[in-house]
Amino acid sequence: QLTERLTGALKTLRGQARLSESNIQDVLREVRIALLEADVALPVVKEFVDTVRREALGQAVLSSLTPGQAFIGVVHQVLTRLMGEQNEGLNLATQPPAVILMAGLQGAGKTTTAGKLAKWLKEQQKKKVLLVSCDIYRPAAIEQLQILSQSIEVDFFPSFAHQAPEEIALAALDHARHHYHDVLIVDTAGRLAIDEAMMQEIQRLHQTIHPVETLFVVDAMQGQDAVNTARAFGEALPLTGIILTKLDGDARGGAALSVRHVTQRPIKFIGVGEKLTGLEAFHPERMASRILGMGDVLSLIEEAQRSVDKTEAEKLAKKLKKGQSFDLEDFKSQLQQMRKAGGIGAMMDKLPAQLSRGLAPGTAAPDDHALRRIEGIINAMTPLERRRPELLKASRKRRIALGSGVQVQEVNRLLAQFEQMQKMMKMLSQGGMTKMMRGMRN
Ligand code: GDP
Ligand code: MG
Questions:
Q1: Would you write out the chain's pLDDT as a tens digit for each of its 442 residues?
Q2: Is 105 annotated as a binding residue?
Q3: Cα–ligand 1 centroid distance for 109 (angstroms)
Q4: Does 187 appear as a known binding residue?
Q5: How far is CA 310 from the centre of its chain?
Q6: Are residues 190 and 232 in the same domain?
Q7: Which sign does the torsion angle of CA 39, 251, 255, 232 carry?
Q8: Gap from CA of 158 to ligand 2 centroid (Å)
Q9: The SRP54-type proteins GTP-binding domain covers which part of the protein (predicted)?
């Protein structure tokens, strides 16, 4: 499963502050296998992985402070985009009755979905709906639809096994016109596998009744096979949308990506149960989260992130214990930690009360931008200056200001902040350090 795969792959990123071409390669390989296992078709997987690689190697992710999270963000975005960005409802803008043609293999869920749609149109859209079955092959298929329409109290147009499908459909259309139905839903026969006669029959039906919506109904549990079915129906009919059924089961939803890719048509609804209430509008973003198992993945990233912070914190704690003083290098690493922790403001909130009292009152919490500037100034210093800030006299400060593109006052302000932090660290080195770090993370 994608979740497990990604979990494993992201674990390898643990402890690495940055994503690079090489470590991204490993994660992408896992994403690729995972998508294949989630039943996404190979060409779709290829395109997907290429897009993610391209976007993940872009500046935003590589320079992000939480690259793992940023990476998943990219995966999620690309998934969402490939599935259509947003929900597209039914298009019934036509001279009534608007005809909806249901297409798909036997067992896909056409008849059930016809009932669900009728219920939805009646209750949510206040439409007058007529249902008709053109499935003259399967015994009891017509009766199945009749029973459904009775249970939702929607009009049903009777048909008989000796009639031709087009004949049935035309009669139903005529009836709908005369009885002012807003929508006519035409259920059709499917075969267990794609078959030329079936395709020709539904093509003829399509030409006869000119549906405004031709919906391809496909079982999400079909996995890889869904691709071939979708291709065949997409080539035979001008589909207007897709309904993916049986998503209440174990299906990860990878079929959504492939079917969309193969047909280039929007997924409009998903089936989430045998009952007639089991129909939901399709939301690409939610499906992306489902495919990714987003909840699990996000919590993993947070955990990985925490372990990075902890290593840093432990290094610093060790150093302070050995009696070494807190220098500008440490200050910089502290600032980086702060940014990860959500800025100084967030950190201050988490500091034990007696510690934050030790800090100058009214010190404005610098934002992300300010923190970056401070880092820039420290970067302009020589390693010796960072270790021994007392060396920083006027001429050195001018050089640093020039080198980092700021005014000398800003360098002075930074040094004042640093001294404050140094004082605090001295206080903490008497054993409080680890406690503080622990406090910060909760
Ligand atoms: P058709 O041959 O395409 O008309 O398929 P049916 O509508 O007869 O459905 C075939 C089977 O799938 C039936 O047992 C339905 O109850 C079941 N089914 C249809 N849609 C869903 C769904 O969204 N979830 C679940 N769990 N079962 C469904
Ligand atoms: Mg049926």
A1: 555 666 666 665 555 555 667 777 877 887 788 788 777 888 888 988 998 888 877 656 656 556 666 777 788 888 889 888 778 889 999 999 999 999 999 999 999 999 999 999 999 999 999 999 999 998 799 999 999 999 999 999 999 999 999 999 999 999 999 999 999 999 999 887 888 888 999 999 999 999 999 999 999 988 778 888 999 999 999 999 999 999 887 777 788 888 999 999 999 999 999 999 999 999 888 888 777 765 445 555 455 455 556 666 666 667 666 666 778 888 887 777 666 655 444 444 444 333 444 444 444 445 667 777 888 888 888 888 888 888 898 888 988 888 888 889 989 988 988 887 777 777 665 554 455 555 444 3
A2: yes
A3: 4
A4: yes
A5: 29
A6: yes
A7: positive
A8: 15
A9: 266-279
Is 245 annotated for ligand binding? Answer: yes
Q: Which amino acid is at 94?
A: T
Atom of ligand 1 nearest to the CA of 115: 7
CATH number at residue 79: 1.20.120.140
Atom of ligand 1 nearest to the CA of 135: 4
How many folded domains does the chain comprise?
Answer: 3
User: What's the rounded Cα separation, in Å, for the pair 259 and 287?
Assistant: 13
CA of residue 96 to ligand 2 center, whole Å = 25
What letter would DSSP give residue 189?
A: -
Strand partners, 131: 156, 185
Rounded alpha-carbon distances, angstroms, from residue 184 to 14, 157, 242: 56, 10, 18
Whether the CB-CB separation of 184 and 98 falls below 8 Å is answered with yes
Q: How distant, in Å, are the alpha carbons of 129, 138, 156, 417 from that of 183?
A: 5, 25, 12, 71
188 in a labelled binding site: yes
**Would 242 be classed as within a structural domain?**
yes
Give me the domain span that covers residue 248: 98-282
- Complex ipTM above 0.85? yes
* Residue 98 labelled as part of a binding site: no
* DSSP codes, 65-128: SSHHHHHHHHHHHHHHHHTTSS-------SSSSEEEEEE--TTSSHHHHHHHHHHHHHHHS---
Say whether 3 counts as a known binding-site residue. no
Q: What is the CATH number for 422?
A: 1.10.260.30
Ligand lying nearest the CA atom of residue 219: 1
Ligand 1 neighbours by CB, cut-off 6 Å: 104, 106-112, 190, 245-246, 248-249, 271-274, 278
CA 104 / ligand 1 centre spacing (Å): 12
Supply the residue whose CA is at minimum distance from atom 27 of ligand 1: 274
From 257, 282, 307, give the residue that closes a domain. Answer: 282
Residues 345 and 232 in one domain: no
437 domain residue, yes or no: yes
Give the residue whose CA is nearest to atom 6 of ligand 1. Answer: 109
Q: Which of 102, 112, 219 has the most ligand 1 atoms within 8 A of CB, as the residue to mutate?
A: 112
302 within a domain of the structure (yes/no): no
Among 143, 222, 274, name the best residue to mutate to test ligand 1's pocket (greatest count of ligand atoms within 8 A of Cβ): 274
